[in-house]
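TEACHING EXERCISE
Course module: macromolecular assemblies
Task: Read the component lines below, then compare them to the predicted structure of the full complex.
Student: A.B.
Group: 4
Components provided:
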Amino acid sequence: GESVGLHLPTLSVQEGDNSIINCAYSNSASDYFIWYKQESGKGPQFIIDIRSNMDKRQGQRVTVLLNKTVKHLSLQIAATQPGDSAVYFCAEISMDSSYKLIFGSGTRLLVRP
Amino acid sequence: DTGVSQNPRHKITKRGQNVTFRCDPISEHNRLYWYRQTLGQGPEFLTYFQNEAQLEKSRLLSDRFSAERPKGSFSTLEIQRTEQGDSAMYLCASSLESVNTEAFFGQGTRLTVV
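Instructor-supplied answer key:
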């Protein structure tokens, strides 16, 4: 399949370890922040979102943290598995702009067996 | 499979030719988006439909690009007089108005202009 993540920063983790992927966002007026996962040859897949008035949200094996003071978003993946290997993008949505996604730069996650 | 279908998956065309891509969103989704993605970058917004109305277009969408969603169901994206710089992955996404943040993406159409 084609590579989605050429020239992207790469995080390499051991299977079973926790992963932390970071993102800096630009628009302090964004209402939601979302993490997407993109595997090679596929479109982005929704993972988890967080509303701007929250600072933490947990899902299944994933946690998103939002620090509005420094405009920083992170995705924590617990017990990383080989199937987690992909490119991860953060994205922003503003409710006054058609809910279109504004994507940030991606991070490639490689899980070593 | 997210339920959003895009055709064709791959398109190779000569510079100057016209191409048309199709997106079939999830049937009950009233919001439909087109994005463009180049290697190593995140997707960039091109245009947005709510039902059949095209409500927003990016400045990236030059006058060679046109999109339609005639009956509020499938959508087409046409590029006229293609240029090498148009080579990219074109992604379609759909969502429900009541669930604002979860957009479902198709697998995209990879366009190569030679």
